[in-house]
Design brief:
Strand 5 and strand 6 form a beta hairpin. It contains 3 helices and 6 strands; from the N terminus they run βααβββββα. By secondary structure, the protein is of the alpha+beta class. Strands 1, 2, 3, 4, 5 and 6 form a 6-stranded antiparallel beta sheet that branches. It has one domain: Roll (Thiol Ester Dehydrase, Chain A), CATH 3.10.129.
């Protein structure tokens, strides 16, 4: 696990997240990573509902995932997150590790953008809260 992660969240695999093969279904990893991003944003004092009510939505524009080691029911895992900014894009590098042996389960790059009153733009409140991480 990266020791220099900007944020880490512990998760536990639930039975219903597994498919017929007994492993976490691929779509569930997106939920793990989104939950981690939301908790990270909340830890900075930002709230997605409040941002939305003010006309700003942070939305996923691109997602690339590489599956490495499957998780199974009952596994505890760590989801790590690092963020950087490139122009209008927020680039989240995320990894999920199985706790018992620290094997990498998935590695992903999630690109998000701010849509402000229906138009792609720069969210100064978000950039301000992220400045320690993105160098703004």
């Amino acid at each position: 696990m990266k020791s220099d992660s900007h944020f880490t969240l512990t998760l536990k695999v639930r039975d219903y997240e597994c498919d017929l093969q007994g492993i976490v279904n691929n779509s569930v990893y997106q939920q793990y990573m989104e939950h981690t991003r939301h908790e990270f944003i909340l830890s900075l004092g930002l709230d997605f509902a409040q941002l939305h009510n003010q006309g700003t939505d942070l939305v996923v524009a691109r997602l690339e995932m590489a599956f490495k080691t499957p998780l199974t029911s009952g596994d505890e895992a760590f989801c790590t997150l690092n963020v950087q900014k490139q122009g209008l894009k927020y680039i989240f590098e995320q990894e999920v590790y199985r706790k018992k042996d620290m094997k990498l389960a998935i590695k992903a790059t999630v690109t998000a953008v701010a849509v402000i009153h229906g138009k792609l733009g720069i969210s100064e409140p978000v950039d301000e809260k992220l400045k320690a991480f993105i160098g703004a």
